[in-house]
Protein: Branched-chain-amino-acid aminotransferase
Amino acid sequence: MSNQWIYLDHAFVRKEEAVVSVYDHGFLYGDGVFEGIRVYSGNIFKLDEHLKRLYQSAQSIMLEIPYTKEELQQIIIETIRKNELDTAYIRLVVSRGQGNLGLDPASCARPRLVVIAEALSLFPKELYQRGLSLGSVATRRNRPDVLSPQVKSLNYLNNILVKLEANQAGVDEALMLNDQGYVTEGSADNIFIVKNKKIVTPPVYLGALEGITRNAIIDLARTLNYEVVEAPFTRHDVYVADEVFLTGTAVEVIAAVQVDGRKIGEGIPGDVTNHLLAAFREIVTRDGVPCYTDAGQANVG
Ligand code: PMP
Structure:
């Protein structure tokens, strides 16, 4: 038996016993929502923002989460404590729950909650020093009027298909365009370009998830006196950028130094990217909801 505890519905169970029904519509249809959250030195980074996004995703797909935000916060903190974690990755999943084989969610009696907390395996340092290669892929980002990228749903096939394409092309990450050819995001991260010190990221309505890290970086860059704008751009703008970087809970801030075979800037992570990564790592250890003091219990947003 492992000593990892998973919160499943109403109780903590051991990892080996944390199993759900094959009739769960999360499994059958990808019907559900999720969040990936990070814990730095016992502090949960941007927990309020993650919970807000989870509830908005749920609202959008008419899934009623059977917990309040305050209850969810307590469950997350308890999961971290029970696993005695300090630096961790949290996966929060709310599925439509168990139903019959029909796709109608009406057969599902109650949404199912899963909270997984694991020690974080950090991305290798070399990747941050070297930077990633990106490749634009043929598969377009889901159109917002078909399946909105704003909904962080369990249906990640669009993202998985582009990841497969990136793997086939031998690049580290996919660059996703929308149906009009505008740049949207990576398979699991937001994109920024830097030109003449000005930082640009696509508006989310073009077809990107509103990343928590994205928003944190926009705020941080502005406090560091960079000009940051949300504006549409094409692959050409990426090819001729001085710097390109991606943001996400998993990658934090990471440079992309090659895009569709074009070298970006000097072909190494640029000054703005390095500056933002260093500044980001300072705020993540400082900010956040503490798990191991009573402040964490009271600090409910
Ligand atoms: N876009 C997609 C499609 C993602 O899955 C993620 C990861 N959640 C992101 C962007 C980055 O979002 P965040 O900074 O909230 O992790």
Q: What stands out?
A: The chain has two domains: 5-119, 125-284. DSSP finds nine helices and 16 strands in the chain. Residues 36, 159, 185, 188-190, 209, 211-214, 247-249 surround 4'-deoxy-4'-aminopyridoxal-5'-phosphate (CB under 6 Å).
